[in-house]
Every structure is written in structure tokens, then in C-alpha cells.
Amino acid sequence: METGQVMSEAAPKGGGKREGGLGAPTRHPIDWKSEAFYDEVPLFKELERVYDICHGCRRCVSLCQSFPVLFDLIDESRTMEVDGVDKKDYWKVVDQCYLCDLCYQVKCPYVPPHEWNVDFPHLMLRAKAVQFKNGEVGAARKLLTNTRTIGGLASIPVVTEMVNAANRSPTLRKVVKNLLGVHPDAHVPTYHSRSAHDRVNVVTGALPSGRAAGPTRGKVALFVTCYGEYNMPQVVDDLVRVLRHNAIEVKLIEQEQCCGMPKLELGDLESVARYKQFNLPVLHEAVKDGWDLMAPIPSCVLMFRQEIPLMFPDDAEVLAVKARIFDPFEYLMHRHKAGLLDTGFRKPLGKLAYHAPCHQRVQNIGPKTRDLLSLIPGTQIEFIERCSGHDGTYGLCDETYAYAMKIAKPIVTRVNQADVDHVTSDCPMAADHIAHGMGNTKPASHPISLVRMAYGI
């Protein structure tokens, strides 16, 4: 079925149509290889249809900036309906969507199998793909989403200090704004000259063959990710230590490319496909050799669990990888259920503000990170389920930074009021964004680093 294809011709105002349904939400494959996918005539027809449904519902108004922009366009139009909005202004809504997926997963009552068949994020993805194919994405955005290229260059020892110094300099940040469109006040991650592969290879070693428990096999091949490799190698080290502490054999995927999420959000689906062509044979080989897969960033897990399978629904390697990739805390809680998690924590963590990231929530695995952190004695958790507004590049770019901070403000206010000892999120960019909004008065940590701290290892 083509993305956005309507299963019923009923108009949103047709009357008598039920809201919600009993069927579990499902998603259609992304028909990105067809010419029709990039045809603006059916795209604009579908945008108008879905915008009209959203206008009649409005329950997503608090999620992100896309919906306030849409509703303001409608309310300020001559008809106060979608038909009064200039078609060229439809792109203003698209530009504010960063594919967090929360509208689909937690708010919209009209997702498939409902007859209105609303998949707002994937409609926005289609529109972004049209923008990209039409050459409407600038060189700066393309470069900014080349995370592995930027990370590789920034990790060259002589370059690392220069890049980190530039990020700390208000004067040089203005230069970066002109070159890459990065807002001078946005939090920019630190780069490290010793990558995760350089650092972690020093401490890993063979363990006895893994012990299976539930869906886990006790052997993990770790997809390090671009961010893990260059921006948070210590967190990768912490994850390896925690897994090994729990008698889980670990190895790193030695050759990998970006998972493709930054390019997906840009609408550059051809680059996503190229990364897939590189990564999937390597990951599939690990699965065939008896390894489970894991990544320390929720967005990367989501790419292999959802987006790539929807782009390549008939690819056997893709489906095999989808079935064997895990979120770290999901994996550990499976082990805990089988009695194989070491719960001999030595150090309390005090009070934590734990933010559940969007791309973890939409995997429908439940709050496994919170559940594991709750096992640590002397630890209180302020549990936050709300988008941080960062999304990798959205919280960096000059034109969207203010919106990203606006979206984060309710979280920042809540964390400040809670008076916590740590700010933590499985998404390190979200944690840093929240801490940045607090003026960096509290440290931002990855929860796996806190678990290692609690173990005292």
C-alpha cells in the first residue's frame, strides 16, 4: 500500500465515524521507491486531508511546534478551515516535525487500522523526502547530518581540542552559525580523540559462552553508534562493564556506518539505504553467529526495529536484525526476570530526574530503564514522559533552537522544582538539552553510567 493511501474516502466531517478503535496500531511500509511517493499532487492532497483531521481533533497541540503552526495557519485563514490555508504554507508544518513519533503512538485516535489511516510522522517523512529530492535542503544541513564524517574529523587529536575550544568560544560559535547554521547558544556535544573502539578494546575479553534467558542469548554484539563512538565513548565503556558484570559476553561491531536516523529526518532516504547496505550484512552475520544486538542510543535501535524494516519490508536480513536488536535496559530486565541480573548495588544514587526519550517510548517496550533504576536502594526517581524537543539537529539549528527550548521548558521547570541529584535520559542529547536549559546546574548522565556507579565497578 502506498504511504498515505486512504482506506476509506470518508471525509473527516462525515459524521458517525468512530474515534479510535480496538485494533492495535499498525504501520504501512514506506513506498519510497515509487515515483508516486515524490509526486507533489497526491502529496498535497494527502496533506490537506490529514491536516483537516488534525484540525478537527487538536489533541496533539502540546506535543511539538508542528501542530501549533498548523492550527494558527487555519485559525488565521479567511475560512478558518484548511481550505483557507495557502498550499505553500503547508511546508511550515513539515519543517517543524522532527519525527519523534509521539503523535502516532500516544495521542492520535485515527492511526491504522482506523479507516482514516492517519500516520502523521510518515506523511511528514514523505514531504521531507520530496523537499530533499527537489534540492530544497541546504548544504549546511546535509553536512550537519553526516555524523560519522564530522565525528571522524573531530576525533583527530590535533583537531579535537580545536573543535571543543571553538564550541566554548562565543566568537567562534558565531562563525559556526554562519557555516553550519548552529545556534550560538545551543549545547554542542564534546568530541573525544580516543573513540569508543579505541577505549573499549582495552578492557574487553572473553567470557564463558552466554547463558540464554527469555528472548536473550547472553551474548551481545554492540552497535556503538556515531554518538557513542565520538561523543560518549565513556558511556560505551560503562555499558560494556555493566553487561560483563552480569556475565553477558560482549563484542563491538567492528565496522559500522551511521544507523541513518539523521538522514531519515532530513528526508534523504537514498543515504539511509546506503547505510543499510553497509550495516545489515555485518549485523546479520553477528545474528547468525549467535549474538544478540544492542545500541546505546534509542534512535539507532528504532531505526533497525522500525524505520529500516518499513523501508525494506521484504528483506530477510532486515527482518532477522529487527528480531534480535535490543534496548540495553530492555535486555537487562529480561535477564532480571530470569533471575540473572546482579542486584547487589553498593551505592545509592539519590534523587534522579529520569526522562524517557521519545524514540524509546515508541518501541513499546515499557519503562524498563525506570524499572531497573528502581531496584537500586536509596534511589528516588522523578519519572518524566514528555518530549525534550532536542531531536539531534532540531535543538541545534538556528531556526529551530528557540522552539526546542520552548518544548523543553516544562521539563526544565519540573526538574528544577524536584531538586534532583542527577538528570538522566537514555538519549544523551535529551539529557544534555535539559541540563542546558537548567544552566547546567545539575550533571547530565546516561542511566547506564549511573548503574555502573551504583555497582561500584
Strand segment count: 8
What is the tally of helical segments?
22
The rough form would be described as: globular
Terminus-to-terminus distance: 51 Å
Number of individual domains: 4
Structural class: alpha/beta
| Helix fraction bin | 40-55%
- Specify Rg, calculated over alpha carbons: 22 Å
Largest sheet: 4 strands, parallel
Strand-residue proportion: 5-15%
Going across the biggest sheet, name each strand in turn.
Answer: 2-1-3-4
Q: Enumerate the spans where pLDDT stays under 50 for 5 or more consecutive residues.
A: 1-16
Order of helices and strands: HHHHHHHHHHEHHEHHEHHEHEHHEHEHEH
Mean pLDDT: 90
Question: How would you sum up this structure, described in words?
Answer:
A 4-stranded parallel beta sheet has the order 2-1-3-4, sandwiched between helices. The protein has a 4-stranded parallel beta sheet with strand order 6-5-7-8. The protein is 48% helix and 7% strand. α1 runs antiparallel to α5 (120-133), α14 crosses α16 and α20 (401-418) crosses α21. It has 4 domains: 35-133, no CATH class; 139-180, no CATH class; 196-334; 343-455, Rossmann fold (3-Layer(aba) Sandwich). The chain has 457 residues and is of the alpha/beta class.
